[in-house]
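Checklist before submission:
- one chain only
- standard amino acids only
- sequence pasted in full

Submission:
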Amino acid sequence: MPVFPLLLPRPRAVRATDLAVDLRKGVAVRVPEPWLAGPLGRRLRESIDRLTASVPGLLPRLNPAEDAAPLLAFEVDPSRPAEGFRLTLCDHGCRLAAATAAGAWYGWLAFEQALEQGSGVLPVCEIDDEPAFAARGVMLDISRCKVPTQETLRFLVARLSRLRINQLQLYTEHTFAYAGHETVWRDASPMTAAEIRELDDFCADHFIELVPNQNSFGHFERWLRHPEYKPFAESPDGFTSPWGTVFPHGSVLRPNEESLRLIEGLYDQLLPNFRSRLINVGCDETYELGEGWSRAQCEARGRHRVYLDFLVALHERVSARGFRMQFWGDIILKQPELIRELPPGVTALEWGYEHDHPFAEDCEKFRASGVPFYVCPGTSSWNSLIGKNTNALDNLRAAALHGRAAGAAGYLVTDWGDNGHHQPLPVSFLPFAAAACLAWSPGGIRDEEAEAAAAWAFLDGCADTARVFAALGRVSDVISERFYNSTVFHHALFHPEPVPAKLDERFARVPAAELHTADNLLAALASSASAISDALLRAEFLHAIDMARAGIARRLARMNGASAPAGFDSTLDRLRDQHRSVWLARNRPGGLHESIGKFDQVRIHKP
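Returned file contents:
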Protein backbone atom coordinates (compact mmCIF):
# COMPACT_ATOMS: atom_id res chain seq x y z
CA MET A 1 0.00 0.00 0.00
CA PRO A 2 1.63 3.30 -1.04
CA VAL A 3 1.97 6.00 1.58
CA PHE A 4 0.15 9.15 0.51
CA PRO A 5 2.76 11.87 -0.01
CA LEU A 6 2.99 15.11 1.96
CA LEU A 7 1.79 17.67 -0.56
CA LEU A 8 2.50 21.30 0.29
CA PRO A 9 0.45 23.40 0.11
CA ARG A 10 -2.17 20.98 1.39
CA PRO A 11 -4.73 19.98 -1.25
CA ARG A 12 -8.34 21.02 -0.78
CA ALA A 13 -9.81 17.58 -1.56
CA VAL A 14 -8.18 14.16 -2.00
CA ARG A 15 -9.84 10.85 -2.85
CA ALA A 16 -7.24 8.12 -2.41
CA THR A 17 -7.25 4.33 -2.63
CA ASP A 18 -4.97 1.51 -1.42
CA LEU A 19 -3.85 0.83 -4.99
CA ALA A 20 -0.67 2.07 -6.59
CA VAL A 21 0.47 3.30 -9.98
CA ASP A 22 4.09 2.50 -10.85
CA LEU A 23 5.89 5.12 -12.94
CA ARG A 24 9.43 3.93 -12.29
CA LYS A 25 9.88 2.87 -15.90
CA GLY A 26 9.20 6.40 -17.04
CA VAL A 27 6.25 8.60 -17.82
CA ALA A 28 5.23 10.30 -21.05
CA VAL A 29 3.98 13.82 -20.41
CA ARG A 30 1.54 15.09 -23.03
CA VAL A 31 0.90 18.85 -23.07
CA PRO A 32 -1.33 20.81 -25.50
CA GLU A 33 0.79 22.78 -27.96
CA PRO A 34 -0.23 26.31 -26.85
CA TRP A 35 0.80 25.52 -23.28
CA LEU A 36 3.93 23.72 -24.39
CA ALA A 37 5.13 26.74 -26.38
CA GLY A 38 4.73 29.14 -23.45
CA PRO A 39 6.00 29.46 -19.87
CA LEU A 40 4.48 26.13 -18.85
CA GLY A 41 6.62 24.25 -21.35
CA ARG A 42 9.78 25.95 -20.08
CA ARG A 43 8.94 25.25 -16.45
CA LEU A 44 8.12 21.61 -17.23
CA ARG A 45 11.44 21.05 -18.97
CA GLU A 46 13.30 22.41 -15.92
CA SER A 47 11.21 20.27 -13.59
CA ILE A 48 11.74 17.13 -15.65
CA ASP A 49 15.49 17.71 -15.49
CA ARG A 50 15.23 17.93 -11.68
CA LEU A 51 13.15 14.77 -11.46
CA THR A 52 15.54 12.83 -13.69
CA ALA A 53 18.37 13.79 -11.34
CA SER A 54 16.52 13.22 -8.06
CA VAL A 55 14.47 10.04 -8.66
CA PRO A 56 16.69 7.08 -9.70
CA GLY A 57 15.48 5.38 -12.84
CA LEU A 58 12.65 7.82 -13.48
CA LEU A 59 12.76 9.10 -17.06
CA PRO A 60 9.91 11.52 -17.72
CA ARG A 61 9.66 12.60 -21.35
CA LEU A 62 7.81 15.64 -22.63
CA ASN A 63 5.58 14.96 -25.67
CA PRO A 64 7.49 11.95 -27.01
CA ALA A 65 6.70 10.71 -30.51
CA GLU A 66 5.13 7.55 -29.09
CA ASP A 67 3.60 6.85 -25.69
CA ALA A 68 5.72 3.86 -24.79
CA ALA A 69 5.51 4.68 -21.10
CA PRO A 70 2.61 5.39 -18.73
CA LEU A 71 0.96 8.65 -19.73
CA LEU A 72 0.26 11.90 -17.90
CA ALA A 73 -2.01 13.93 -20.16
CA PHE A 74 -2.60 17.64 -19.60
CA GLU A 75 -6.12 18.75 -20.50
CA VAL A 76 -7.57 22.25 -20.96
CA ASP A 77 -10.75 22.32 -18.87
CA PRO A 78 -12.44 25.76 -18.85
CA SER A 79 -14.75 24.63 -16.04
CA ARG A 80 -11.92 24.51 -13.53
CA PRO A 81 -11.19 27.54 -11.28
CA ALA A 82 -8.66 29.93 -12.81
CA GLU A 83 -5.66 28.58 -10.90
CA GLY A 84 -7.16 25.30 -9.77
CA PHE A 85 -6.58 21.81 -11.11
CA ARG A 86 -7.73 18.20 -10.95
CA LEU A 87 -4.97 15.61 -10.87
CA THR A 88 -6.06 12.01 -11.45
CA LEU A 89 -3.50 9.26 -10.91
CA CYS A 90 -4.43 5.73 -11.96
CA ASP A 91 -2.81 2.70 -13.60
CA HIS A 92 -4.54 3.20 -16.96
CA GLY A 93 -3.43 6.80 -17.42
CA CYS A 94 -2.95 9.96 -15.40
CA ARG A 95 -4.67 13.25 -16.20
CA LEU A 96 -4.12 16.84 -15.15
CA ALA A 97 -7.03 19.14 -15.98
CA ALA A 98 -6.79 22.92 -15.60
CA ALA A 99 -8.34 26.03 -17.10
CA THR A 100 -5.07 27.97 -17.35
CA ALA A 101 -1.37 27.32 -17.76
CA ALA A 102 -0.83 28.56 -14.21
CA GLY A 103 -3.32 26.02 -12.86
CA ALA A 104 -1.61 23.30 -14.88
CA TRP A 105 1.77 24.33 -13.43
CA TYR A 106 0.42 24.14 -9.89
CA GLY A 107 -1.02 20.68 -10.58
CA TRP A 108 2.30 19.53 -12.00
CA LEU A 109 4.04 20.72 -8.83
CA ALA A 110 1.79 18.41 -6.78
CA PHE A 111 2.66 15.59 -9.18
CA GLU A 112 6.38 16.39 -8.89
CA GLN A 113 6.24 16.35 -5.07
CA ALA A 114 4.43 13.02 -5.13
CA LEU A 115 6.92 11.49 -7.55
CA GLU A 116 9.89 12.57 -5.45
CA GLN A 117 8.47 11.25 -2.20
CA GLY A 118 7.24 7.98 -3.67
CA SER A 119 10.33 7.37 -5.83
CA GLY A 120 8.02 6.89 -8.78
CA VAL A 121 5.31 4.82 -7.06
CA LEU A 122 2.13 6.82 -6.39
CA PRO A 123 -1.24 6.04 -4.84
CA VAL A 124 -4.20 5.82 -7.16
CA CYS A 125 -6.08 8.98 -6.29
CA GLU A 126 -7.83 12.13 -7.46
CA ILE A 127 -6.85 15.56 -6.17
CA ASP A 128 -9.10 18.60 -6.59
CA ASP A 129 -7.40 21.81 -5.61
CA GLU A 130 -7.66 25.58 -5.93
CA PRO A 131 -6.26 28.53 -3.95
CA ALA A 132 -8.05 30.10 -1.02
CA PHE A 133 -6.69 33.57 -1.86
CA ALA A 134 -6.67 34.79 -5.45
CA ALA A 135 -3.59 36.95 -4.82
CA ARG A 136 -0.72 35.26 -2.97
CA GLY A 137 2.23 37.57 -2.66
CA VAL A 138 5.62 38.31 -1.17
CA MET A 139 6.89 41.82 -0.54
CA LEU A 140 10.65 42.36 -0.21
CA ASP A 141 12.07 45.50 1.37
CA ILE A 142 14.68 46.85 -1.05
CA SER A 143 14.90 50.30 0.54
CA ARG A 144 16.35 49.64 3.98
CA CYS A 145 19.96 49.30 2.77
CA LYS A 146 19.71 45.93 1.03
CA VAL A 147 18.97 45.76 -2.71
CA PRO A 148 19.27 42.17 -3.96
CA THR A 149 21.22 41.37 -7.10
CA GLN A 150 19.29 40.33 -10.17
CA GLU A 151 20.59 36.80 -9.63
CA THR A 152 19.14 36.75 -6.11
CA LEU A 153 15.80 38.09 -7.32
CA ARG A 154 15.64 35.45 -10.06
CA PHE A 155 16.47 32.75 -7.49
CA LEU A 156 13.61 33.92 -5.28
CA VAL A 157 11.12 34.20 -8.14
CA ALA A 158 11.86 30.68 -9.36
CA ARG A 159 11.56 29.24 -5.85
CA LEU A 160 8.44 31.23 -4.93
CA SER A 161 6.76 30.02 -8.11
CA ARG A 162 7.25 26.45 -6.87
CA LEU A 163 5.25 27.45 -3.78
CA ARG A 164 2.43 28.84 -5.98
CA ILE A 165 3.12 32.48 -5.12
CA ASN A 166 1.65 34.66 -7.87
CA GLN A 167 2.61 38.23 -6.88
CA LEU A 168 5.88 39.92 -5.96
CA GLN A 169 6.40 43.48 -4.75
CA LEU A 170 9.71 45.27 -4.18
CA TYR A 171 9.12 47.86 -1.46
CA THR A 172 10.61 51.08 -2.81
CA GLU A 173 11.32 54.43 -1.25
CA HIS A 174 14.39 55.62 -3.17
CA THR A 175 15.91 52.55 -4.83
CA PHE A 176 14.67 53.02 -8.38
CA ALA A 177 16.99 55.03 -10.63
CA TYR A 178 14.66 57.96 -11.26
CA ALA A 179 16.12 60.31 -13.87
CA GLY A 180 16.61 63.78 -12.45
CA HIS A 181 16.73 62.51 -8.86
CA GLU A 182 20.26 61.10 -8.81
CA THR A 183 21.03 62.77 -5.49
CA VAL A 184 18.53 60.50 -3.76
CA TRP A 185 19.68 57.12 -5.10
CA ARG A 186 23.31 57.72 -6.03
CA ASP A 187 24.77 55.47 -3.30
CA ALA A 188 21.91 52.95 -3.18
CA SER A 189 22.69 50.63 -6.15
CA PRO A 190 19.10 51.12 -7.34
CA MET A 191 17.02 49.05 -9.71
CA THR A 192 17.09 50.49 -13.21
CA ALA A 193 14.20 50.54 -15.67
CA ALA A 194 15.94 47.91 -17.78
CA GLU A 195 16.40 45.65 -14.73
CA ILE A 196 12.74 46.01 -13.76
CA ARG A 197 11.67 45.07 -17.28
CA GLU A 198 13.98 42.06 -17.26
CA LEU A 199 12.65 40.96 -13.87
CA ASP A 200 9.06 41.56 -15.01
CA ASP A 201 9.67 39.21 -17.95
CA PHE A 202 11.22 36.61 -15.66
CA CYS A 203 8.29 36.85 -13.23
CA ALA A 204 5.74 36.48 -16.02
CA ASP A 205 7.60 33.41 -17.21
CA HIS A 206 7.07 31.93 -13.71
CA PHE A 207 3.37 32.86 -13.38
CA ILE A 208 4.15 35.73 -11.00
CA GLU A 209 2.85 39.29 -11.34
CA LEU A 210 5.50 41.88 -10.49
CA VAL A 211 3.53 44.69 -8.82
CA PRO A 212 5.08 48.18 -8.73
CA ASN A 213 5.57 49.63 -5.27
CA GLN A 214 6.49 53.23 -4.43
CA ASN A 215 5.79 54.76 -1.05
CA SER A 216 4.11 58.05 -1.86
CA PHE A 217 3.33 59.90 1.39
CA GLY A 218 5.07 58.58 4.49
CA HIS A 219 8.52 56.99 4.72
CA PHE A 220 9.93 59.62 2.38
CA GLU A 221 12.87 60.35 4.67
CA ARG A 222 15.51 59.23 2.20
CA TRP A 223 14.32 62.00 -0.12
CA LEU A 224 13.56 64.69 2.44
CA ARG A 225 16.99 64.52 4.10
CA HIS A 226 18.48 66.22 1.04
CA PRO A 227 18.34 70.05 0.93
CA GLU A 228 16.70 70.24 -2.51
CA TYR A 229 13.73 68.14 -1.29
CA LYS A 230 13.17 69.89 2.06
CA PRO A 231 10.45 72.14 0.58
CA PHE A 232 8.35 69.00 0.10
CA ALA A 233 8.57 68.00 3.79
CA GLU A 234 5.79 68.26 6.33
CA SER A 235 8.51 68.87 8.94
CA PRO A 236 11.62 70.09 7.06
CA ASP A 237 13.62 70.58 10.26
CA GLY A 238 12.82 67.18 11.73
CA PHE A 239 10.31 65.73 14.15
CA THR A 240 9.96 63.46 17.17
CA SER A 241 8.33 60.10 16.58
CA PRO A 242 5.53 58.75 18.81
CA TRP A 243 8.09 56.49 20.55
CA GLY A 244 10.42 59.38 21.36
CA THR A 245 13.06 59.10 18.62
CA VAL A 246 14.22 62.47 17.31
CA PHE A 247 14.67 62.64 13.52
CA PRO A 248 16.76 65.49 12.08
CA HIS A 249 14.69 65.63 8.89
CA GLY A 250 11.14 64.94 7.82
CA SER A 251 9.67 61.64 6.70
CA VAL A 252 6.23 62.71 5.41
CA LEU A 253 5.40 64.71 2.29
CA ARG A 254 3.36 67.86 2.54
CA PRO A 255 -0.16 67.03 1.32
CA ASN A 256 -0.16 69.63 -1.46
CA GLU A 257 -0.04 69.99 -5.23
CA GLU A 258 3.75 70.27 -5.34
CA SER A 259 4.09 66.88 -3.66
CA LEU A 260 1.53 65.38 -6.02
CA ARG A 261 3.47 66.65 -9.03
CA LEU A 262 6.65 65.10 -7.62
CA ILE A 263 4.91 61.75 -7.17
CA GLU A 264 3.32 61.94 -10.62
CA GLY A 265 6.77 62.30 -12.13
CA LEU A 266 7.94 59.20 -10.28
CA TYR A 267 4.95 57.18 -11.46
CA ASP A 268 5.56 58.25 -15.06
CA GLN A 269 9.06 56.79 -14.91
CA LEU A 270 8.29 53.69 -12.85
CA LEU A 271 4.97 52.33 -14.09
CA PRO A 272 5.71 51.78 -17.81
CA ASN A 273 8.18 49.02 -16.85
CA PHE A 274 5.48 46.67 -15.52
CA ARG A 275 2.84 44.41 -17.04
CA SER A 276 0.80 44.67 -13.85
CA ARG A 277 -2.03 47.19 -13.61
CA LEU A 278 -1.69 47.39 -9.82
CA ILE A 279 0.48 49.75 -7.78
CA ASN A 280 1.10 49.84 -4.04
CA VAL A 281 1.44 53.52 -3.09
CA GLY A 282 2.22 52.81 0.57
CA CYS A 283 1.03 55.81 2.63
CA ASP A 284 1.64 54.09 5.99
CA GLU A 285 2.91 55.54 9.27
CA THR A 286 2.41 59.22 8.41
CA TYR A 287 3.22 60.05 12.02
CA GLU A 288 4.15 63.72 11.75
CA LEU A 289 1.24 64.72 9.52
CA GLY A 290 -0.30 67.78 11.16
CA GLU A 291 2.81 68.56 13.19
CA GLY A 292 4.32 70.95 10.63
CA TRP A 293 3.22 72.45 7.33
CA SER A 294 -0.33 71.02 7.48
CA ARG A 295 -0.98 71.84 11.15
CA ALA A 296 -3.67 74.43 10.40
CA GLN A 297 -5.44 72.15 7.92
CA CYS A 298 -5.41 69.24 10.34
CA GLU A 299 -6.70 71.37 13.20
CA ALA A 300 -9.52 72.69 11.03
CA ARG A 301 -10.56 69.52 9.21
CA GLY A 302 -9.02 66.70 11.21
CA ARG A 303 -5.76 64.86 10.56
CA HIS A 304 -7.40 61.81 9.08
CA ARG A 305 -9.56 63.86 6.73
CA VAL A 306 -6.42 65.58 5.41
CA TYR A 307 -4.82 62.16 5.03
CA LEU A 308 -7.82 60.80 3.12
CA ASP A 309 -7.93 63.79 0.78
CA PHE A 310 -4.31 63.24 -0.22
CA LEU A 311 -4.96 59.51 -0.66
CA VAL A 312 -7.89 60.30 -2.96
CA ALA A 313 -5.68 62.68 -4.96
CA LEU A 314 -3.10 59.91 -5.38
CA HIS A 315 -5.84 57.56 -6.51
CA GLU A 316 -6.90 60.04 -9.21
CA ARG A 317 -3.35 60.10 -10.59
CA VAL A 318 -2.99 56.33 -10.41
CA SER A 319 -6.33 55.81 -12.18
CA ALA A 320 -5.44 58.32 -14.88
CA ARG A 321 -2.49 56.10 -15.75
CA GLY A 322 -4.63 52.98 -16.02
CA PHE A 323 -3.62 51.44 -12.68
CA ARG A 324 -5.51 50.24 -9.60
CA MET A 325 -4.24 51.44 -6.25
CA GLN A 326 -3.23 49.50 -3.16
CA PHE A 327 -2.36 51.26 0.10
CA TRP A 328 -1.42 50.30 3.64
CA GLY A 329 -4.52 50.50 5.84
CA ASP A 330 -3.06 51.43 9.22
CA ILE A 331 -3.88 55.16 9.15
CA ILE A 332 -7.46 54.93 7.83
CA LEU A 333 -8.19 52.32 10.52
CA LYS A 334 -7.59 54.97 13.17
CA GLN A 335 -10.81 56.66 11.98
CA PRO A 336 -12.71 53.74 10.46
CA GLU A 337 -15.83 55.74 9.63
CA LEU A 338 -13.80 57.24 6.77
CA ILE A 339 -13.24 53.81 5.16
CA ARG A 340 -16.56 54.09 3.33
CA GLU A 341 -15.30 57.25 1.64
CA LEU A 342 -12.40 55.52 -0.06
CA PRO A 343 -12.70 55.75 -3.84
CA PRO A 344 -13.95 52.70 -5.75
CA GLY A 345 -11.28 50.32 -6.92
CA VAL A 346 -8.74 50.80 -4.13
CA THR A 347 -7.46 47.83 -2.17
CA ALA A 348 -6.50 48.25 1.48
CA LEU A 349 -3.55 46.31 2.86
CA GLU A 350 -4.24 45.22 6.43
CA TRP A 351 -0.83 44.66 8.03
CA GLY A 352 0.32 43.47 11.42
CA TYR A 353 3.28 41.40 12.52
CA GLU A 354 2.78 40.13 16.05
CA HIS A 355 1.17 36.87 17.10
CA ASP A 356 -1.83 38.70 18.59
CA HIS A 357 -2.44 41.29 15.88
CA PRO A 358 -6.22 41.98 15.68
CA PHE A 359 -6.75 40.69 12.14
CA ALA A 360 -10.33 39.64 12.87
CA GLU A 361 -11.33 43.10 14.10
CA ASP A 362 -9.52 45.05 11.38
CA CYS A 363 -10.64 42.80 8.53
CA GLU A 364 -14.25 43.20 9.61
CA LYS A 365 -13.98 47.00 9.29
CA PHE A 366 -12.89 46.75 5.68
CA ARG A 367 -15.38 43.97 4.89
CA ALA A 368 -18.29 45.87 6.40
CA SER A 369 -17.39 48.94 4.33
CA GLY A 370 -17.20 46.96 1.11
CA VAL A 371 -13.55 47.81 0.51
CA PRO A 372 -11.41 45.03 -1.00
CA PHE A 373 -8.42 44.18 1.15
CA TYR A 374 -5.42 41.92 1.57
CA VAL A 375 -4.10 40.54 4.84
CA CYS A 376 -0.40 41.28 5.23
CA PRO A 377 1.47 39.38 7.95
CA GLY A 378 5.27 39.31 8.16
CA THR A 379 8.24 36.99 8.31
CA SER A 380 9.29 38.41 11.74
CA SER A 381 12.88 38.36 10.45
CA TRP A 382 13.76 42.05 10.61
CA ASN A 383 15.43 43.38 13.76
CA SER A 384 15.83 39.76 14.85
CA LEU A 385 19.20 38.62 13.42
CA ILE A 386 18.12 34.97 13.75
CA GLY A 387 14.36 35.01 13.13
CA LYS A 388 11.31 34.62 15.37
CA ASN A 389 9.67 31.55 13.89
CA THR A 390 7.08 30.92 16.60
CA ASN A 391 5.79 34.48 16.40
CA ALA A 392 5.98 34.40 12.59
CA LEU A 393 3.97 31.19 12.26
CA ASP A 394 1.31 32.36 14.72
CA ASN A 395 1.06 35.67 12.86
CA LEU A 396 0.91 33.97 9.45
CA ARG A 397 -1.76 31.51 10.58
CA ALA A 398 -3.93 34.23 12.12
CA ALA A 399 -3.78 36.33 8.95
CA ALA A 400 -4.83 33.36 6.81
CA LEU A 401 -7.63 32.29 9.14
CA HIS A 402 -9.22 35.70 9.67
CA GLY A 403 -8.50 36.98 6.19
CA ARG A 404 -10.21 33.98 4.63
CA ALA A 405 -13.19 34.28 6.97
CA ALA A 406 -13.67 37.95 6.10
CA GLY A 407 -13.25 37.46 2.36
CA ALA A 408 -9.83 39.01 1.82
CA ALA A 409 -8.85 39.32 -1.82
CA GLY A 410 -5.21 38.51 -1.15
CA TYR A 411 -2.49 37.45 1.23
CA LEU A 412 0.82 39.36 1.11
CA VAL A 413 3.68 38.35 3.39
CA THR A 414 6.14 41.17 4.06
CA ASP A 415 9.88 40.92 4.68
CA TRP A 416 11.33 44.17 6.05
CA GLY A 417 14.87 45.41 6.65
CA ASP A 418 14.57 48.06 9.36
CA ASN A 419 17.68 49.45 11.05
CA GLY A 420 20.34 48.08 8.73
CA HIS A 421 18.79 44.91 7.30
CA HIS A 422 21.21 42.66 9.18
CA GLN A 423 19.32 39.35 9.02
CA PRO A 424 20.58 37.04 6.26
CA LEU A 425 18.01 36.14 3.61
CA PRO A 426 17.69 32.41 4.56
CA VAL A 427 16.29 33.46 7.96
CA SER A 428 13.12 34.28 6.00
CA PHE A 429 12.91 31.04 4.00
CA LEU A 430 10.75 29.13 6.49
CA PRO A 431 8.25 32.01 6.96
CA PHE A 432 8.09 32.48 3.18
CA ALA A 433 7.28 28.79 2.73
CA ALA A 434 4.70 28.78 5.52
CA ALA A 435 3.04 31.91 4.15
CA ALA A 436 2.79 30.43 0.67
CA CYS A 437 1.18 27.25 2.02
CA LEU A 438 -1.29 29.22 4.12
CA ALA A 439 -2.17 31.58 1.26
CA TRP A 440 -3.18 28.54 -0.80
CA SER A 441 -4.70 26.48 2.00
CA PRO A 442 -5.42 28.50 5.18
CA GLY A 443 -6.54 25.56 7.28
CA GLY A 444 -3.22 25.62 9.12
CA ILE A 445 0.30 24.31 8.78
CA ARG A 446 2.33 22.38 11.30
CA ASP A 447 5.83 23.56 12.15
CA GLU A 448 7.38 20.47 10.57
CA GLU A 449 5.35 21.06 7.38
CA ALA A 450 6.69 24.62 7.13
CA GLU A 451 10.19 23.21 7.56
CA ALA A 452 9.58 20.63 4.82
CA ALA A 453 8.17 23.27 2.46
CA ALA A 454 11.21 25.48 3.01
CA ALA A 455 13.54 22.55 2.31
CA TRP A 456 11.68 21.61 -0.87
CA ALA A 457 11.37 25.13 -2.29
CA PHE A 458 14.52 26.96 -1.21
CA LEU A 459 17.10 24.42 -0.05
CA ASP A 460 17.05 21.82 -2.82
CA GLY A 461 15.44 19.30 -0.52
CA CYS A 462 18.14 19.49 2.16
CA ALA A 463 16.21 18.63 5.33
CA ASP A 464 19.28 19.05 7.57
CA THR A 465 19.73 22.67 6.48
CA ALA A 466 16.05 23.38 7.00
CA ARG A 467 16.21 21.80 10.43
CA VAL A 468 19.05 23.95 11.73
CA PHE A 469 17.60 27.18 10.34
CA ALA A 470 14.24 26.29 11.89
CA ALA A 471 15.94 25.70 15.23
CA LEU A 472 17.78 29.01 14.92
CA GLY A 473 14.46 30.83 14.54
CA ARG A 474 13.15 29.27 17.75
CA VAL A 475 15.99 30.41 20.03
CA SER A 476 14.19 33.68 20.78
CA ASP A 477 11.40 31.64 22.45
CA VAL A 478 13.53 31.28 25.60
CA ILE A 479 13.28 35.04 26.22
CA SER A 480 10.10 35.73 28.16
CA GLU A 481 10.06 39.49 27.49
CA ARG A 482 8.59 40.27 24.06
CA PHE A 483 10.29 42.89 21.91
CA TYR A 484 7.87 44.24 19.28
CA ASN A 485 9.08 43.58 15.72
CA SER A 486 12.51 42.62 17.06
CA THR A 487 14.50 40.46 19.45
CA VAL A 488 16.53 41.28 22.53
CA PHE A 489 19.63 40.08 20.64
CA HIS A 490 19.29 42.78 17.99
CA HIS A 491 18.55 45.52 20.50
CA ALA A 492 21.40 44.47 22.76
CA LEU A 493 23.91 44.49 19.92
CA PHE A 494 22.98 47.65 18.07
CA HIS A 495 21.48 50.16 20.48
CA PRO A 496 24.10 52.83 21.19
CA GLU A 497 24.51 54.18 24.71
CA PRO A 498 22.58 55.46 26.47
CA VAL A 499 19.73 53.04 25.88
CA PRO A 500 16.32 54.81 25.75
CA ALA A 501 14.59 54.65 29.12
CA LYS A 502 11.58 52.59 28.01
CA LEU A 503 13.79 50.08 26.25
CA ASP A 504 16.15 49.89 29.21
CA GLU A 505 13.18 48.95 31.42
CA ARG A 506 12.38 46.07 29.08
CA PHE A 507 16.04 45.00 29.03
CA ALA A 508 15.97 44.92 32.82
CA ARG A 509 13.10 42.44 32.78
CA VAL A 510 15.14 39.89 30.80
CA PRO A 511 16.81 37.59 33.36
CA ALA A 512 20.48 36.79 32.87
CA ALA A 513 19.57 33.11 33.06
CA GLU A 514 17.46 33.41 29.91
CA LEU A 515 20.31 35.14 28.07
CA HIS A 516 22.71 32.37 29.12
CA THR A 517 20.23 29.74 27.95
CA ALA A 518 19.92 31.45 24.57
CA ASP A 519 23.69 31.72 24.29
CA ASN A 520 24.09 28.00 25.01
CA LEU A 521 21.51 27.13 22.38
CA LEU A 522 23.27 29.32 19.84
CA ALA A 523 26.63 27.78 20.65
CA ALA A 524 25.18 24.30 20.16
CA LEU A 525 23.65 25.32 16.85
CA ALA A 526 26.97 26.75 15.68
CA SER A 527 28.54 23.35 16.29
CA SER A 528 25.87 21.78 14.06
CA ALA A 529 26.68 24.02 11.11
CA SER A 530 28.46 21.11 9.43
CA ALA A 531 24.97 19.84 8.57
CA ILE A 532 24.78 22.70 6.04
CA SER A 533 26.60 21.59 2.91
CA ASP A 534 26.18 24.85 0.98
CA ALA A 535 29.07 27.18 1.86
CA LEU A 536 27.08 30.43 1.56
CA LEU A 537 24.17 29.14 3.64
CA ARG A 538 26.62 27.96 6.26
CA ALA A 539 28.36 31.36 6.35
CA GLU A 540 25.02 33.16 6.68
CA PHE A 541 23.90 30.80 9.44
CA LEU A 542 27.10 31.31 11.45
CA HIS A 543 27.05 35.09 10.91
CA ALA A 544 23.51 35.31 12.32
CA ILE A 545 24.61 33.27 15.34
CA ASP A 546 27.73 35.38 15.88
CA MET A 547 25.74 38.62 15.80
CA ALA A 548 23.16 37.29 18.26
CA ARG A 549 25.84 35.99 20.63
CA ALA A 550 27.66 39.33 20.49
CA GLY A 551 24.42 41.03 21.50
CA ILE A 552 24.00 38.66 24.43
CA ALA A 553 27.59 39.25 25.54
CA ARG A 554 27.12 43.02 25.38
CA ARG A 555 23.91 42.88 27.41
CA LEU A 556 25.39 40.58 30.06
CA ALA A 557 28.39 42.91 30.40
CA ARG A 558 26.08 45.86 31.01
CA MET A 559 24.16 43.87 33.60
CA ASN A 560 27.48 43.31 35.37
CA GLY A 561 28.36 47.00 35.35
CA ALA A 562 30.72 47.03 32.35
CA SER A 563 30.14 49.06 29.19
CA ALA A 564 30.97 46.10 26.95
CA PRO A 565 32.58 42.65 27.14
CA ALA A 566 36.34 42.30 26.87
CA GLY A 567 37.62 42.50 23.30
CA PHE A 568 34.32 43.91 22.03
CA ASP A 569 35.93 46.10 19.36
CA SER A 570 37.70 43.05 17.94
CA THR A 571 34.40 41.21 17.90
CA LEU A 572 32.85 44.07 15.96
CA ASP A 573 35.72 43.99 13.45
CA ARG A 574 35.08 40.31 12.84
CA LEU A 575 31.33 40.86 12.49
CA ARG A 576 31.91 43.69 10.01
CA ASP A 577 34.08 41.44 7.84
CA GLN A 578 31.52 38.63 7.96
CA HIS A 579 28.71 41.03 7.19
CA ARG A 580 30.43 42.42 4.12
CA SER A 581 31.13 38.93 2.80
CA VAL A 582 27.64 37.48 3.17
CA TRP A 583 26.01 40.75 2.05
CA LEU A 584 27.87 40.92 -1.25
CA ALA A 585 27.09 37.28 -2.05
CA ARG A 586 23.40 38.11 -2.58
CA ASN A 587 23.10 41.90 -2.67
CA ARG A 588 24.40 45.00 -4.38
CA PRO A 589 26.98 47.15 -2.60
CA GLY A 590 24.67 50.13 -2.12
CA GLY A 591 23.49 50.37 1.48
CA LEU A 592 26.28 48.17 2.83
CA HIS A 593 28.18 51.13 4.27
CA GLU A 594 25.10 52.25 6.22
CA SER A 595 24.43 48.71 7.48
CA ILE A 596 28.03 48.17 8.59
CA GLY A 597 27.98 51.59 10.22
CA LYS A 598 25.56 50.21 12.81
CA PHE A 599 28.42 48.13 14.21
CA ASP A 600 30.59 51.23 14.55
CA GLN A 601 27.91 53.15 16.46
CA VAL A 602 28.38 50.87 19.47
CA ARG A 603 32.16 50.72 19.52
CA ILE A 604 34.03 51.43 22.74
CA HIS A 605 36.75 53.15 20.73
CA LYS A 606 35.26 54.97 17.77
CA PRO A 607 37.19 54.56 14.49
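Reviewer check: The mean pLDDT is 95.
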